[in-house]
Amino acid sequence: MSEPLVLVAGATGRLGFQICEVLLSRGSRVRALVRVTSDPGRIGKLRELGADVVVGDLERPETLPAAVRGASAVVTTASSFPLDERPDAIDRMERAGSINLVDAAAASGVERFVYTSFWEIVPDFPFQQAKRAVEARLAASGLTYTVLRPASFMEVWFSPLLGFDLAAGKATVYGDGTEPLTWISTSDAARFAVWAIDAERARNATIDLGGPEALSQLEVIALHEELAEKTLARSRLTLDALEEMYADAAAPRERSLAAVMLNVAHGGSRDMRELCGASGIHLTSAQEFAARQLATA
After folding, report:
1. Which one of 52, 225, 241, 261 has the fewest beta carbons within 10 angstroms of its own beta carbon?
2. Is 248 inside a domain boundary?
3. CATH code of residue 143
């Protein structure tokens, strides 16, 4: 009897690719949903790992029935934020596109649907509103589902994309940088996504995810400095500046960016000990993450 088939949407992104790696390493059959415009190199790597590749687009619902056909589970990390600069990208992709995938999965009789969202953030913003709309559609779909809400990803916030550039010797700090946050690694979120496919505890559940410790931005920067034996020049976006960015932003993308920056400035934590015990998942510490960053630099 062959292994159940899992469709992974967003498979060429960092988190989606890692989910494919975890699934394939445990012997699962994986179908990777990619767009015509997806990175050919990334697609090639997925094929090398053993994934089947299917071309489709969440914004084109007519392409999705063939993608979900025969799949016992769907895992989606597909997102256009923050790189897609189209004025309506959040509505087209994050909201309508993900709802298209939910509807296609329900129509096809998929047994399990795992959706990646994020913690509740105040103040509200378009990207979050789109995510919550998809969560509501999923809950009403009749599918057995899991909504995973990870905290801020270390791979995103401690990367050049958001002003942290170890090679260039600089780091951007949001707010005063002192508020602790339980940062999570994408590799850990990937393992939770795979766990959620079968876990009874994850059945029709919304689960917040965080890392093993609550550390401030300045503490994580200091870890990198200690391991790299160099001091990083800090630039700062003050809390007042971030609040002004949020208030003045007219476009959905810019308002959403300001809101997630404010969230990091304010910090936040989750106690993951009980969930890690139940799932058997070891969480990556900031020290381990920093060492890994330096090893691959």
Report:
1. 52
2. no
3. 3.40.50.720
